[in-house]
Amino acid sequence: MIFIRLVQKNVKTQFKNYLIYSLSMACSVMVYYSFISMSLDQSLLQRLHANRNLAATLQASGAMIALFIFVFMYIANSLFINKRKNELGLYSLLGMRRYQIGLMIFLENLVLGLFSLIIGLILGIIFSKLFSMMLVKALSLEMDSRFVFNLGAVEKTTRMYLIILFLVSLRGIYLVYRYNLIDLFRSATKGERYIKVTLFTWLIGFLGIFLVCLGYYRAAHLSDYTMILNQHYENGMGLFFGVIRILAYCVSGTYFIFYGFLPIVLVMLQKIKSFYYRDIHMITTGNLRFNFRKNAMLLGTIAVLSGTAIAAIGGATNVYSFGIEAAEKDNPVNFIVDETLSDELVTKLSSLEREKSNLEQVNLPITLLKGEFVQTFSEEQTTAKGPFNIISEKNYADLQAINPHLKTLAKLKETEVIYLEGVVYGGQGAWNRTFSTIKFEGFTSSFKVKNVMIDELGGRMRARYNLPTFIMAESQVDKLKGQKKYTLSFIRSHNKLSDEAVYKKVVRKFPPTKLRLIEDNDTIYEEKVPQAMVQRDDYLGLTREVVVARYPDLQNNRTQFGLLVYTAIFLGSIFLIATGSIIMLKQLSEAEEERSRYQMLRKLGVTQSQIKGSIYRQNALVFFVPIIIAALHGKYALVALSYLLPSSNQTLTWLARGIMLVIYLIFYLSTVSNYNKIVNKS
């Protein structure tokens, strides 16, 4: 009974110290339960039957959260045991056996763990509908989210958590049996509090700055760096090796900064007498030197992993923005159809609209013309032959009325053309391509490229043949009347019904049909692809679809990339909460050790406001130096990503950064408040 009462007393007295730990764990359990519950929600899975990856993605995200929980509990448990060295040593001196101390730690962990599990499950059950609604919104689905109590999710969550709790608790027992607790009691007073700055410290400190700056420079010039490595390795793996090298530079440089550069900065500040002897800066810098020496590995790891979380959130939001922009630019209107079916489609749409004036239609004739040109891209020269898509500048101007993405063209001369770049690599493909003189069949004179523009006509991937596309002067296109042509009708609908409803009522009634482009000697013609081959991706040849609707492409991108953003934001937020909690627990553990020193300062006449200011400054550096480095890592990771996925919409990325700042600001203010209470305790 005495033993049980001791456990109860310890849990009660330590509850305030464990509260942030318990709440962080409860938050992780809540999100884990919600993800598992949604992965088992049959109504949601049936609604997304086409996306087979939903359940797997949610369960994989749950596994990542479980890993975070294990790492967080492992580190937090180490901090708690380190904080209670004196207490555990005292128990040993008073005659408690090792198995009793180990069992006490095990039971304390079990009680706190079960408390976190119960609170997390309750919150997860309460907020599961909210998380489900957020997922439905992220995937742009039209369905009601139901409140569902999922017993299977409760069982999986409980089983996962208890396994982790058992493993972490066993480690506490292992520490008790590994060390002599009397020596552990004495170790609390051991250790040099100040770090010596040696030549080696200077070397690794400035090497860290150099490596991080080199990594940032390479990330900002990833295109050039990739080409250099491609020439060196001659295997097309330049991008892969470039990314690996940049990661190595930034990760190793981060640890060197915490081990070497920050202690150097603090030593240099101590040598500035006007700063060092003002207020109680000597105490602040002394504490920071000791903390950075003792926790360099932990703070460096937090900076690296937080940077990874920030990059993951920002990268996912960038991918989402890029995917939606790409779908909208390739489908600038509701429907792109072959002219032969436009009247039938308009009739069906008009029956829904009731007024034909709600429809806008522009036809785009495209001439298939043989030719040849030599191009230079990334210092590599190639020759392109075959049929090309030719569009007149007048038809391009007509299409501007219905396609908001098209830019106004300068007037073309008869021997000038504009090349529309289809593949944009890092936002630079269109600007790095140069052309030699271009020759087209049927023209004696040569042409030259006046300008290179991004292909934003629409329908490039499905409605048009995926061929090099040129814009030509109207007078020259008029001379091509004998050439093979196909005409696309761009139709915009202002229907009050949703895109999904219109798609189901109208477009699905058109059987999927593709046309294939055939070159037979000097003749170009089209033939219908056999119905059995329409759905096959491996069907050889250039093909185009006769009816293309915007809704399937846009919805597919919203579903895939929305799920990516949803999981990235939640996983990143959980991880940032975990790292913020670790820093907070570490600082509060340090506060217990520093309390006697601050009490001595008060006896020497230092005011409470001076002590409070020192606490604010000291904790600000410990909290925000890692997060500033992490934010810089995340920024340049996104700069490198923009080489592959150019995106002009950064709203979601800035929202993610705002979430990160709010999380750390809350932890910082809470830490300062509790730190101040601890050191000023009588």
UniProtKB/TrEMBL annotation:
<dbReference type="InterPro" id="IPR052536">
    <property type="entry name" value="ABC-4_Integral_Memb_Prot"/>
</dbReference>
<dbReference type="Pfam" id="PF02687">
    <property type="entry name" value="FtsX"/>
</dbReference>
<feature type="domain" description="ABC3 transporter permease C-terminal">
    <location>
        <begin position="570"/>
        <end position="681"/>
    </location>
</feature>
<comment type="similarity">
    <text>Belongs to the ABC-4 integral membrane protein family.</text>
</comment>
<keyword id="KW-0472">Membrane</keyword>
<keyword id="KW-1003">Cell membrane</keyword>
<feature type="transmembrane region" description="Helical">
    <location>
        <begin position="56"/>
        <end position="80"/>
    </location>
</feature>
<keyword id="KW-1133">Transmembrane helix</keyword>
<feature type="domain" description="ABC3 transporter permease C-terminal">
    <location>
        <begin position="63"/>
        <end position="178"/>
    </location>
</feature>
<feature type="transmembrane region" description="Helical">
    <location>
        <begin position="651"/>
        <end position="672"/>
    </location>
</feature>
<dbReference type="GO" id="GO:0055085">
    <property type="term" value="P:transmembrane transport"/>
</dbReference>
<dbReference type="InterPro" id="IPR027022">
    <property type="entry name" value="ABC_permease_BceB-typ"/>
</dbReference>
<keyword id="KW-0813">Transport</keyword>
<feature type="transmembrane region" description="Helical">
    <location>
        <begin position="620"/>
        <end position="645"/>
    </location>
</feature>
<keyword id="KW-0812">Transmembrane</keyword>
<feature type="transmembrane region" description="Helical">
    <location>
        <begin position="296"/>
        <end position="316"/>
    </location>
</feature>
<feature type="transmembrane region" description="Helical">
    <location>
        <begin position="101"/>
        <end position="127"/>
    </location>
</feature>
<feature type="transmembrane region" description="Helical">
    <location>
        <begin position="239"/>
        <end position="269"/>
    </location>
</feature>
<protein>
    <recommendedName>
        <fullName>ABC3 transporter permease C-terminal domain-containing protein</fullName>
    </recommendedName>
</protein>
<feature type="transmembrane region" description="Helical">
    <location>
        <begin position="18"/>
        <end position="36"/>
    </location>
</feature>
<feature type="transmembrane region" description="Helical">
    <location>
        <begin position="563"/>
        <end position="585"/>
    </location>
</feature>
<feature type="transmembrane region" description="Helical">
    <location>
        <begin position="160"/>
        <end position="177"/>
    </location>
</feature>
<dbReference type="GO" id="GO:0005886">
    <property type="term" value="C:plasma membrane"/>
</dbReference>
<dbReference type="InterPro" id="IPR003838">
    <property type="entry name" value="ABC3_permease_C"/>
</dbReference>
<feature type="transmembrane region" description="Helical">
    <location>
        <begin position="197"/>
        <end position="219"/>
    </location>
</feature>
